[in-house]
Each structure stands twice: as C-alpha cells, then as structure tokens.
Amino acid sequence: xxxxxxxxxxxxxxxxxxxxxxxxxxxxxxxxxxxxxxxxxxxxxxxxxxxxxxxx
Length: 56
Hints:
2 helices; elongated; Antimicrobial Peptide, Beta-defensin 2, Chain A
C-alpha cells in the first residue's frame, strides 16, 4: 500500500508529458502559439500546458 504513494507522482508526470510537445506539433506541420490560434488557423493539438498547436 505504501508503494501507491510513490507511484502516484510518477503517473502524474507521465500523463502530463503525454499531453503534447513542440516536436510533435512540428511533425504535423503546425506551430505553437501562446494563447489562442489566430483567425483562419485550426487548433490540432497541444504544445504544452495551455499552449495550443496551430495549423493553417
């Protein structure tokens, strides 16, 4: 039971890392933008925490 307290932070770190990254965005030919994607550009994923990946 004590091992659950050690595994819980590790699982949270893995889930946070799986959210997306800049490299994956670039592979999809997108770009990272600070807030919301500009008009005429679609959101296709996440570059990081609260940073959308945009694609024309």
